[in-house]
Design goal:
By secondary structure, the chain is α+β, with helices and mostly antiparallel strands. It is built from 19 helices and seven strands. Strand 2 and strand 3 form a beta hairpin. It is elongated.
Length: 372
């Protein structure tokens, strides 16, 4: 079961349940699987509502239907934005509707769709809706950005937990080579983390943000040595890992993303996207995962499996918890993302990082499988 490896930490139900329900009237957390959702907001003349659902044939399309709102309602942009947040969490790229009042809304869908419907690119539609909201509605949406980020991460963490490497751990068929290559590739980017954090300090004009990066830098010192100790216990070639190894393509993609955000773009907010994913996944690792991992290491003939997992266990502890690295990161991100464009940029980094992270662990399992 995935729950034995990854736990979901987001509780969005209490925050949004009063306005987002399934067709059966059940409250739905933001990280729920795609389904028809009825979204409601209070209006000056009564409640406004709309249904958002995934297209049954095209998973990249979200459908808006059953609009219940008076013509020209000022709350309509707020309502539609909330509905499309669901679609963005589902990773839809288009929104389609047959509702004439949505045709005339600030969303302005301009793409022709079958059956007299209209469609629009999701990112453009949400940008228009955010701009059209009044200041109070925009402030409410901004306050809810972090919940969307956490719901997105929860879905990506569940996907990560089902990669080939994690499945091999759970099923106790992980091979020594598959574990060594995972640690070795992790070493390739962990050893550069302090340097990247130092660059983040240098380009951050915000004093509290500099303080955050400085505290993080102090907490990331010499973590590469933990990896080297784990590798040495498993009789791996540590000298090669430290001095000559080239990271795998997916690992390189994860590294390049971080390097690009802080060295080329010099954007500390987007730079936080990669650790948001890596630390968020680490913070969600359950103790049961390490029981499985230790059983694999014992099977290889190593009697002290804890001596081969010091890096992973230390990060699960440091990144999790109320005052862990991940929650501190979340607090900083919540303060930095103040409009839809910033939210879209950060979400793009989350997906890039999660894609690379998952591909890398799939490759550790698939490309280093020695079983017959």
């Amino acid at each position: 079961m995935l729950d034995s490896v990854i736990t979901t930490r987001t509780d969005t139900t209490a925050i949004r349940a009063f306005r987002e329900q399934s067709v059966r009237g059940e409250a739905l957390p933001l990280d729920a699987d795609p389904t028809a959702v009825r979204v409601c907001v209070p209006g000056s003349t009564g409640r406004l509502a709309v249904t958002v659902a995934p297209d049954a044939r095209r998973g990249h399309v979200a459908v808006l239907s059953d609009l219940d709102a008076p013509p020209g309602a000022p709350e309509l942009p707020h309502l539609l934005y909330l509905a499309l947040q669901r679609a963005r969490i589902w990773r839809c790229s288009l929104v389609s509707t047959g509702e004439p009042r949505i045709f005339e809304s600030p969303m302005r869908p301009s793409l022709a769709a079958p059956g007299g419907r209209r469609a629009e690119m999701l990112d453009l539609a949400m940008h228009r809706l955010f701009v059209a909201c009044n200041p109070a509605a925009r402030a409410q949406l901004v306050e809810g950005f972090v919940q969307e980020l956490l719901a997105t991460l929860d879905r990506r963490a569940r996907s990560f937990a089902d990669n080939a490497w994690c499945r091999a751990v759970r099923e106790q068929r992980l091979e020594r080579a598959q574990y060594i290559v995972a640690l070795a590739n992790t070493h390739q980017y962990v050893r550069y983390t302090p340097r990247l954090l130092a660059r983040a300090i240098a380009v951050s004009d915000d004093e509290s943000l500099r303080d955050h990066f400085y505290r993080h830098l102090r907490g990331e010192q010499r973590h590469d040595r933990l990896l080297e100790s784990d590798l040495r216990y498993l009789d791996a070639d540590v000298d090669f890992v430290v001095h000559a190894m080239v990271p795998g393509p997916a690992t390189q993609a994860f590294m390049t993303l971080q390097e690009s955000m802080i060295t080329f773009h010099q954007d500390p907010a987007r730079f936080l996207g990669a650790p948001f994913v890596a630390e968020g996944i680490a913070a969600r690792i359950e103790p049961e995962f390490f029981h499985h991992l230790h059983a694999n290491i014992l099977r290889w003939g190593y009697s002290r499996p804890e001596k081969a997992t010091r890096f992973l266990t230390s990060h699960a502890l440091a990144d999790g918890g109320e005052d862990g690295h991940f929650n501190r990161n979340v607090a900083v991100v919540a303060r930095l993302l103040r409009d839809d464009s910033a939210q879209q940029r950060f979400l793009a980094v989350i997906h890039q990082a999660a894609d690379a992270f998952t591909r890398s662990y799939d490759s550790y399992a698939d490309h280093y499988d020695l079983s017959l």
